[in-house]
């Protein structure tokens, strides 16, 4: 009787091990493909805008639900510059994710849209010191919205000002500015 239980237990362990090992192979492939895309986008945006990638990740336990990139930039930006850079980053990120054939099979939804990614840019002075209100301290893109945040010099635990624009509104403003800069 003990031998039957031992044999059953060993067979169960072997089956679980094979199941886990098979899942790990798929997980490793997914991680490699995701990291390749994240690294490529980070490198492109870093070169294009003079910023450094300081973090990347996402929600991808089973499928890739959400991806994010975080950058640091040592120069102040006004709201228009920040909008231009963050929307360029979002568009580049979405294009890279949606155009990668190997990544597609791991995506929870296809095509990926603005609500499936986030991008953050922490802003500093040229010398690396913190920026305070009225200068932007962070520009971010979360849940399909652009966020412009200024840090409170009196209370480092909160923002002094938080302004939010939808992705569509930010794109509309950029198109309007482009028309003004280059009239027909």
Order of helices and strands: HEEHHEEEEH
- Share in β-strands: 15-25%
Total domains, how many?
Answer: 1
What does the main sheet amount to? 6 strands, mixed
Report the span from N to C terminus: 89 Å
3D shape? globular
Please list the strands of the largest sheet in the order they lie side by side. Answer: 1-2-3-4-5-6
Number of helices, where a helix is a run of at least 4 consecutive DSSP H or I residues: 4
Which range best describes the helical content: under 10%, 10-25%, 25-40%, 40-55%, 55-70% or over 70%? 40-55%
Structural class: alpha+beta
What would the average pLDDT be, to the nearest integer?
88
Q: What is the secondary structure topology, with strand pairs?
A:
Layout (H helix, E strand, L loop, with lengths): L1 H48 L2 E8 L6 E8 L5 H21 L1 H4 L12 E7 L14 E5 L2 E7 L7 E8 H15 L3
Parallel strand pairs: 2-3
Antiparallel strand pairs: 1-2, 3-4, 4-5, 5-6
Architecture overview:
The chain is globular, with a radius of gyration of 22 Å. By secondary structure, it is of the alpha+beta class. It has one domain (32-181). The protein is built from four helices and six strands. β5 (145-151) and β6 form a beta hairpin. It has helices at residues 2-49, 79-99, 101-104, 167-181; strands spanning 52-59, 66-73, 117-123, 138-142, 145-151, 159-166. α1 (2-49) packs across α2 and α2 packs across α4 (167-181). A six-stranded mixed sheet has the order 1-2-3-4-5-6. The chain starts with a helix and ends with a helix. 48% of the residues lie in helices and 23% in strands. Residues 4-23 have low confidence and may be disordered.
């Amino acid at each position: 009787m003990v031998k039957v239980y031992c044999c059953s237990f060993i067979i169960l362990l072997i089956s679980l091990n094979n199941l886990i090992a098979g899942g790990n192979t798929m997980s490793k492939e997914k991680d490699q493909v995701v990291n390749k895309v994240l690294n490529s986008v980070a490198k492109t945006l870093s070169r294009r805008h003079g910023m450094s990638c300081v973090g990347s990740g996402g929600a991808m336990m089973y499928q890739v639900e959400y991806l994010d990139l975080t950058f640091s930039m040592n120069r102040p930006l006004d709201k228009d510059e920040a909008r231009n850079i963050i929307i360029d980053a979002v568009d580049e990120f979405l294009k890279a994710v949606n155009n990668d054939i190997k990544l597609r099979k791991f995506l929870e939804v296809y095509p990926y849209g603005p609500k499936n990614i986030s991008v953050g840019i922490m802003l500093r002075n040229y010398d690396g010191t913190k920026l305070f209100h009225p200068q932007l301290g962070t520009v971010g893109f979360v849940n399909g919205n652009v966020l412009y945040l200024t840090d409170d010099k009196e209370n480092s635990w909160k923002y002094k000002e938080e302004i939010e624009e939808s992705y569509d509104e930010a794109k509309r403003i950029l198109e309007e500015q482009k028309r003004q800069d280059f009239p027909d």
